[in-house]
Structure formats: structure tokens, C-alpha cells
Amino acid sequence: MIPLTYSRSYVILSVLLLLGSGLFFMYNITLMPLSDLLMAAWSPDHNAYQQLIFHYSTLPRLSVSLLAGAALSLAGFIFQQVLRNPLAEPATLGISAGAWLALVICGLWFPVVLIPGREWAAFVGSAFTLSLVMLLAKRRESSPLSLILGGMVVTLFFSSVSAVLVLFNHAALMDLFLWQTGSLVQNDWLTARWLAAQLAIALLLLVMLIRPLNLLSLNEPTAQSLGLSVRYARLLLLLLAVWLSSMVVSRIGVISFIGLAAPAAVRLTGIRRLSARLILVPVTGALMLTFADLLVQTLSQAVNTEIPTGLATALTGAPLLLILIPRLRERHYAVSSSLVPRRVRSPVKLLVLMSVLLLLMTWLALAFGRLPGGWSWSVGEPLQNLMTWRAPRVLAAIASGAMLAIAGTLMQRMTANAMASPEVLGISSGSAFGVVILFMFTGTLSPAALLLAATAGALATLAMIVALSRKAHFSPERVLLTGMATGTACNAVTALYIAGGDDRSLLLLNWMAGSTYRVTPAEVGPALMILLVSLLILPLLVRWLDRFPLGEVVMRSTGMSVSYSRLIILLLAALLSASATLLTGPLSFVGLIAPHLVVMIGFQRGFSRLLASALMGAMLLLFADWIGRNLIYPWQIPAGLCATFIGSPYFMYMMRRQNR
Length: 660
Hints:
The chain is mostly helical. Helix content is about 75%, strand content about 0%. The protein is built from 27 helices and two strands.
């Protein structure tokens, strides 16, 4: 008698197969009769256009989706088994982003490397990324949450670097940019045959490594006592998983979360035998990706726009990540600041000094820069002529940096999490999501409507993070992972809208890069007003912020309403994040860096810390905007991307310093 778990698995696979087959025939039966479809599969009539399309495009795409789904699910299964991490897969570990960056770099400066095949460049980039992620998590014994957290940070940094390279080499990298979204469109059988050969070799190697793979699921001393060389077995299996994922990325682009979803689905059936899971995981992954691709084809036909399959899997995978995060069991790792506490003796004098420095930087940003004739100091009438273009940018950078820094400080104090910030927790992505929803359902682009939509998106994202993290008592790493997963879902919707070809998508794409060069005085005025009002409100919140790190019990014992105080802070943080995002886009790490620099200087508590953070954030983004405007003149690097280049390595440094 077949066990119940196996019956469940067969039911799941049968349902997926039936749904996929139904979609496949629904999509293609309208093109030609069933008899012609069967004929076109084996010997198409070269005078019949629809049969040629079916034989050289539809069937290869179906084959590639099956093979790629199997390869990605196997890679995810190996990562999860070796690292004992149910969230591990090529996307969450940053491997896909590393492969993409490697291909971008080779395509620009080392095209000769791509002659033997793109897969080798992708493999090197993937292996380097995995090594970096494991190095970041080493001090926490490569715990599951720290590995995923490191993978998401590396993904953000590598994606930002790739975005800059694509931005300034758009013509040369246009095909690579479209490939990055994960399209399965095929014109021949070459990719399908190549993937089939590579997958066959990988399966043969995996069969030979079943025993080491099974032993690595145990703890290291037990595996060693059974005669396994843990270090070499882990290295060999990880390289195999990296190869499986990089060969898919090199051929069809980034397909996210299939390596997470397929092993999770098989695990939920209750099957424990490794040999059975090795069979069911690739089959499930192949059917999942095929079903997703067939659904995407059906939707693309309905809206008359090609929707990349990779974006669709990212959109559905992020909620799955949110569901799986609470299932992790691991010891608590504090995510507090590793900086040595110190106190400044005279905060007022230092605040005055920072204000003077900000004024000096503002004057330099307005008067000094590169012009067609070279570097130039502008005074008098030339400066007045330049003020029309430079003044809005400078004021936008100051306002946006200050608001992000204040929002970051509020969130760090409220969650007792030194790595929290609007950018890391996906609040800025939520603001962008709100703007996209506004674009979808209305043609209104007024500043008031944009601010309302961005604030609603930021507040909804922040509220979701709080709701999903409350059961874990706001564990810092759970908060970070929940925020990053939520931000991933928002980014997927935004990218899907951009890929849809709306007339305003180019404007949205430029804005998301974090540039200030389109800012107008009409947009800067409301932002400055919001910043001023926030600074007037902040002194009223100091008592709450000083008690949040002590815990809810202490707060209630002192007569504070935790829910009410948290709601007020959430509203203010959402409004500040949304206002800043509207000016400079969602890409920036000012909300993370500025509060930590202020702590290093000596501001520990009270209103002085909030005010110092605002001044520091304004200076950081103002400097990033000036650098982006002048470094490669006449071209420009968006201020948000410049800040990300500084912020992402700093975040990695913070992770590396934890729990020394």
C-alpha cells in the first residue's frame, strides 16, 4: 500500500501537471487544430508559419522551463540540505545577483571571457558571491537567518552596481538587461539541448554524492564520526549547486524562488527519505516553473505585452518567504550596534559645528562643480544663472537625507535594531509600490496625490512588518528578513509594471535610480515643510524612543501606551520615508549610515541624537549628489546609487562586526 505522504505527493504533482497541460493546450489550441499541433511537434510544414512557431519557439520554451525548473529546484535542495537552511536558494543567497554582475562586467570590459561560454563567467561570479555571504555569516556560525540576511544585502549591493553599469552602457547592455528579468523566450533548440546535457551530468554526480549529502544534514561531529570529510564534501556539493544555478542564469536569466518553493512543497508532503526527495524535488520544480511560464504566456496574450517569467516567480516567491521565515528555529543573535558607546560632552556646540559644516557644503555644492569648460567656482551672475538648476537639487538632497536619517533613527530605536532603516526594511520600496498603484489606476500625477500614495505604501509596508514580526517579539533579524521579503515583493510589482511598457515607465525607472536632476522647486517646498514640522514634533517623542529598547513590559510599567506610541512613530516614519523617496527614489542607505555615524561621534539619546542624525543625513546625501553630478561629467550617477555604494559595504561591515 502506498504511504499517505506519497499519495499526497502524487496528488500535488498530478494537479500541477493537469493545470499546466490545460494551460498549454488552451494557449496553443487557438492557434491551430490539435492534429496540426501534433504534426508540428515532429515534422513542421516549413510553409506553415504557425507550425514553425510551435516547433522552434513554443516547444523549446516548454522544454527549457522544465529543465530550468528542475535545475533550480535541485540547486535549492542541495543548498538547504548542506547549509541546514530551509530558506536557502540561489536568489536568497545572492548567487543570481553575483552571476548577473559577473556577466555585466565581462560583457563590458572582458568580452573575450565569454567566448568559451557565458556559464563560466556566471559560475565564477556565483561562487564569489556565495563565499562572501558565508564569510559575512561566519561569526554567527552560518545560522540560517544570518545567511539569508547576508545574501539579501549582497544582492542589493551587486544589483546597484549592475544598475549603474547598465545605466551608462544602455545600448551595449540592452539585451543583457532584458535577459536579467528572466525571460524564457526561445527561437531554437540549442538552449534546451545544452541544459539537458548539463542537467544529466549534474544528476549523475548527485547520485554519486547521495551519502555525503545525507550525512551533511546531521551535525558536523556526527558526520565526521561516520567517516565523512565534512569540509570537502560540503565544498563539492556547494560547487555543484552553484553550477546548477549559474548555468540556468547564464542561459535564461534570473528566475527567483523556484529553488525555495519546490523543496518546501515536497517537505510539506511529509516525505523524509532523501532518495525520494531527490526524485520529487526536480519534478516538482520543473512543473512549477512550467506552470508559472504557461500562466505568464496566457496573461501576456490577454494584455498583449510580454511579461518576463522571472518577475512573476519573484512576485509569488516573496510571500512564500514571508510564510517560511517564522518556521525557522534558531537561537537569538543580537543585532545591536558594535560601536563603542561614548558621549559627547557639549552636544549643543557640536550641533552648531555640524550646522555650519552643512551650510559650507551647501555653498560648495551650489558654487563649485564641473562645467563644459572644466572645474569652476561660480560667483555673481554666473552663480545666479546656475541656481535655477542646482538649487532644487541641493535642497532636495538635504531634505531627503535629513528625512531618511530621522526615519532610520526612529525605526532603530523602536525595534531596538541597529540595522533597521527605511531602505533595508523595504519601506522605501513600499513607497515606490504606492506610486505604481497610483499610476495603474489613475492618470493623476499631482504632488499631493503622489505624496499620499507613497505614504500609504510606506505605512502599509511598515504595518505589515510590525504585524508579522510581533509574534517573534520583534527579533531584530526576523524584522530585517521580513522587511526585505516585503520589499522584494514590492520591487517585483514595480518591475512588472515597468516591463509592461506604460508610457510613464521610463519616468518611473529614472526616478527609482535615485536621481535629483528632475526635481522642481514645487516638489522641494512641501518636502522642506514636512521636514520642519517633523523636527517640531520630534521632542514630543523622545521619551518614547528612549524607553522602546527597554521592552514593552518596562514601557507599560511606566504608564506608556505601547500601541499608541508605536502607531505615532510608524506614521511619522512612513511620512518621512515617503517624502524622501519621492525626491530621490528608493535606493539609498542614508537612513542606515547616518544614525551610526552620529553614535560614533557621541550622540546617544534624546533630541540631540535625532537632530544630529538629520544633519548627518543631509550632509551624506548632499555629498553623494555632488559626487554623482561631477564625477563623470557630463554624465551623472544618481545620488541614491552613490549612497548605496557606501551604504551596502557598511551594512556588510556591520554584519561582520556583530558578536565578536
